[in-house]
Known about the structure:
Helix content: 25-40%
Number of helices: 5
Radius of gyration: 31 Å
Low-confidence stretches: 188-208
Distance between the termini: 111 Å
Strand content: 15-25%
Mean pLDDT: 80
Number of strands: 9
Number of domains: 1
Shape: elongated
Amino acid sequence: MAHQHRRHTQRGFTLIELLIAITLMAVMAGMSWRGLDGLMRTRNITQTQVDQIAVMQTVLAQWQADLDAMQPVPTLNDAGVSWDGQTLRLTRRASTWRVDGSDAGLWVVAWTRRDTPQAGNNQGVWVRWQSPALQTRASLQQAWAQAQRWGQNSSSEDQALETTLVPLNLWQISYFRGNAWSNPLSSGDAAIGSASSNGGALPNTSATQVTPDAIRLLLELPAQTGLRGRITLDWVRPNFSNTKT
């Protein structure tokens, strides 16, 4: 009798209770999945932005390295750098060495912004061009003219030496000379710009060309770079000393 009484008093979950429990577990699992999915999306977005910032830092480091290694070439570009309003060209020491350990010579390097009409909203890209290592004046003159042609209307041969860097809406260059920032084309370089626009001829060497004390780079970046807005970067000539009080 006691055994029968215990058997009749024991009871399990009803079907409704099981359905409620299963429903609650499904809801909790769905909420957990949405939380994990949100975390993964946030992680991916953050990683993408970190990668984009790293690319921009690498590009700006290359800009600084080019200017730091700038080497004026007499009768070619006494200032070492030339800006025509669209393309910045410079001659710099090559950072690689020959197989035998000898000096590789000089590079002609150029930077410009190129429109990408297919992107819309007047967007463009920042592009860098670099010649092979050069050791003769004739080859330097040829590369200097080629760099100018590349900045104006590049051919497939010219584009073979270029590297597309980052999206770029606009960029501006300013020189610091005479204890003041100015447009590079507003003084001595105006003659350089006008003289260098005649199909690749050499700059007017009769004009006074002096390496600027500093160069200011202003970039306006689109959102896809991870650094939307404006960036200003100043390069100062290593041996520059401002004694103005």
